[in-house]
Design goal:
Helices cover 31% and strands 11% of the residues. With 152 residues, it is α+β, with helices and mostly antiparallel strands. It has one domain. The chain has a 3-stranded mixed β-sheet, with helices on both faces. Strand 2, helix 1 and strand 3 form a beta-alpha-beta unit. The radius of gyration is 17 Å and the shape is globular. GO terms for molecular function: hydrolase activity.
Length: 152
């Protein structure tokens, strides 16, 4: 990031069949701890999509999961969206990446489409407590999933 904070990103990149092959990027930017909360649940989908020619990228929002920095005061701030835009710009610079960016499940109307307002009434239920407690945990230990790790 421009202030020197490092965000944690996981990329699953397909094996190119020929030189200069480019792949579209599927991008997820959330505060839900990509390395532990949903890791086992997400892996089959990630491998499925990667085998079919997509770069799958998961990024922990600032100060959540394995990302560094201080958590932004609230959701959907201009600062948070600027961080997301910065990550997209970095991904677009990858030599294997296609240039177009498509945002799925994005919304311009956060009030009507937000998890906290499913029926136009604010719901501050177990989600708020669980996400705050989960993000208070320390970051996941750094590890490499490589051939040595697989053999162990």
């Amino acid at each position: 990031m421009s202030d020197g904070v490092r965000l944690s990103a996981s990329l699953s990149i397909p094996i190119p069949k020929h030189n200069y092959e480019k792949f579209p990027i599927l991008f997820e930017y959330k505060p839900y701890r990509k390395d532990d909360n949903l890791f086992n649940f997400d892996q089959p989908n990630i491998f499925y999509l990667t085998r079919r020619g997509f770069i799958v990228t998961k990024v922990d929002i600032r100060d959540t999961g394995s990302s560094k920095g201080f958590l932004i005061e609230r959701e959907y701030t201009i600062e948070e969206l600027n961080h997301c835009e910065h990550v997209i710009q970095q991904l677009a610079k990858r030599p294997t990446a296609l240039q177009p960016v498509f945002l799925a499940h994005a919304s311009h109307d956060f009030y009507k489409n937000d998890i906290h307002y499913p029926d136009d009434i604010v719901h501050l239920n177990h989600y708020i407590v669980s996400i705050d407690q989960t993000n208070a945990l320390s970051a996941t230990t750094d590890y490499l999933i490589n051939q040595k790790w697989i053999k162990q």
